[in-house]
Amino acid sequence: MNYAALAAHKWTWATLAALGLGLCGLYWVTMPPDITFEDTALFAGACRTLGMPHPPGYPLHTLTCAPFTLLADIFPITHGQAVALNSVVMATGACVVTLLLLMRLTGSLAAALLAAGLLGLAPGYWSQAIIPEVYGLNALLLTTTLYVAERYVRGREPKWLYMLALVTGLGIANHWPLYVMVYPAIMLWLGPAWRQILFLPRGQLLRAILLGIVGLAPYLHMISVSSDAYLFDPDYQAGDFWAYVSREIYGVGGSILAWQHQLIYALTAAFWFVSQYLYLFGAMILAGITLMVRRRMWWQAAAVGWGMLSCTLVLALVRPPDFFSVVSAAVFAAYPLPAYIFATIPLAYFWRWVLKRFKLRSSIAVALSAALLIAVAQLRIATMDRSDDTVAVAEARLFLEQLPPDALLINRSNDFAFPLKYVRFFENQREDIEIIIEQDIFSELGNDGRLAAENEKLLGAERRPVAFINNLLLATLGRVFHGTYFTVAPNMPQGSTAIELTDPMRDYLQNLYEIHNAQITNGFTKVLVNNTIIQYVLVLTEAQLSNNPDLRAEDVQLLELLKRTAEGQYGFFVARLTSQHTQMTLSQVEQAARELEPYMPELNPARRADIMHFVATARVLSGQLDSAEELLERALAQYTSADNYRVIIDLLQIHAKKNDFASYERLRREYPALDSGQALVATDRQCALHHGKPCARLIEFK
Questions:
Q1: What pLDDT digit, counting tens, does each position of 169-203 carry?
Q2: For site-directed labelling of 266, which of 426, 510, 511, 531 has its Cα 20 to 30 A away?
Q3: 326-329 LR contacts (CB < 8 Å, sep 24+)
């Protein structure tokens, strides 16, 4: 059926409406009840106040989501839900535009429906469609760009070229890094019209340029934002416009690894991409590309190839994520969304080919596609449902209620500080509390987890109550543990810890245990829950070992409850090994590690490597360098990451101790961005003297 006949068919518009309403309803019922972790508080706050979120600024998103914030004033929904509705509308709109595009390309409503619907049900796409984020708008702009490019290629009408220029400017004004990366695919799609574009009349060219500039106009908002506008981080100033938009403020993202690891990450990204469409549909995408090539659809096939590769393989090479880390994996899941969009094209072509082979009537074919989509939705809804994800707001409210007046709160990172700032702004107005990020006031922790001496003195010298979240090992200061955060107590004995838990804190920890057992899938929530469990078990186990009089019976009961989790067992293991009140022999350490084996599959590979590192350290202290070296090699193979710095540093030091500078140089160059502080200064010098040249190709970051 040709497109004109298809567009006029009564089934077509009913199908469009069903897809749009179905996805909107699905996204609504799986939406979190308010902001979560990630950057949701950052974007929700910026939408409300027209402030600037993180680089590169996303000015178009800020302006388009601002009207949605008014819904929270009219209807009984939270502000976070109101802004998330912007993502719902944009992401759904992108799927509807994709359906229109695929109908035009394939002439098959059933094929277009299946491919566009699977886009909306892809886990990475779904996860961004239900939270305040920029990716839904980016998807709508990209699908519109592709649709307009197709209209221009087919008709060569100037109005579609002008529309293309305008949408291109708007795309750059939203998420320019992701949009620009995939834009060569749009240029390839325009390939059949290259002569006409190359020899455009001057008037048409000037109009297109002017409309492109109009599309960039949202950046004027960023320039006009004053430094006293509501910003979530004081480091981001409107005066640093170019540094902000270019993302220079961010520096280089990701761990810089050797090419072998980059290749592994790229292949993992490709495999992950296929799994987003379930493996069967992923195979259909690859078959569809083959079908396009066999039919000599060269320009389209090249565009699809770039569109899929640029945001998976290329991005993995440029900014390699750590696939073993739940946070970076969750973040990276959003980056290949343009690849999912381009994958719908070969999927639709292949599904049309299948339907033709079986000679199904159009109504039956549409019903079959709809049934497949319903099955996929039912398969995934349980894992994508975040309607009970209240951790971020609950934690933020608890902190703001429990913190002493005029407190200085040192947070672990921006991702976990944003909810605090958000709740304070919209609900609590605790302006007496200053929230800062750890690295903004402290130098980095040493390899033993201790603060630099000058920073401990700084904590002790602060006249305001100092609260911090990370379980820092303070050598010269005492501390008070409040369940999820600590406060500095300079008058207490060195390194001592007082326990001061309230019933709301205990209830919160109990809730985290229940959330842990519910098998959370969101990476940021998982990190918060797991880290808090580990921190609680570490502190309370140490209190048990030292017979701390502050320890109450209900705290011990909660400790035993949390020790039923894999993270609790990990914290119990580490607490015994690092406690000043226990002296474990090598055999006892290895026995404790064996007791952890049933829990190992549930632990993040970083923690599994950490356990192996503790055992290796015990072997080093017992003089067993060879067996320690072998264990560290296994740990590094299990968790290949520059973030696993303790394993790498110890392994390098063992190589140097054994005068094995060939292995030393190879490992040092394998992790050129390893931040080792002063730990390897002497061994680097030894290696350089041995080889007659530096062994470390260090990468400097701004």
A1: 999 999 888 898 899 999 999 999 999 988 999 99
A2: 531
A3: 326/523, 326/526, 326/527, 326/604, 327/415, 327/523, 327/524, 327/527, 328/523, 329/523
Calculate the CA dihedral of residues 654, 656, 658, 659 and round it to 10 degrees. 160
> What are the C-alpha distances in Å from 447 to residues 30, 452, 627, 645, 649?
42, 11, 22, 8, 9
Q: How far apart are CA 36 and CA 128, in angstroms?
A: 12
Amino acid at 449: G
Residues 117-168 have pLDDT tens digits of 999 999 889 999 999 999 999 999 999 999 999 999 998 999 999 999 999 9
CB 26 within 8 A of CB 381: yes
Q: What is the dihedral of CA 301, 307, 310, 315, to 10 degrees?
A: -140
SS (H, E, C) 654-686: HHHHCCCHHHHHHHHHHCCCCCCCCCCHHHHHH
Q: Distance (Å, rounded) from C-alpha 399 to C-alpha 99?
A: 46
For 444, phi and psi rounded to 5 degrees?
Answer: -65, 155
Residue type, 142: L
Round to whole Å and give the CA distance between 554 and 552: 6
Low-confidence winner among 127-136, 238-247, 327-336, 370-379 (lowest mean pLDDT): 327-336
Tokens linked to 530: 């797991």
Q: Whole-number mean pLDDT of the chain?
A: 84
Helices 158-189 & 202-215 angle (0-180, nearest 10): 80
Of 277, 307, 279, the closest CA to residue 292 belongs to 307
Question: Nearest Cα to 29, choosing from 382, 373, 515?
Answer: 382
Could you tell me the CA-to-CA distances from 300 to 68, 691, 697 in Å, in that order? Answer: 37, 53, 42
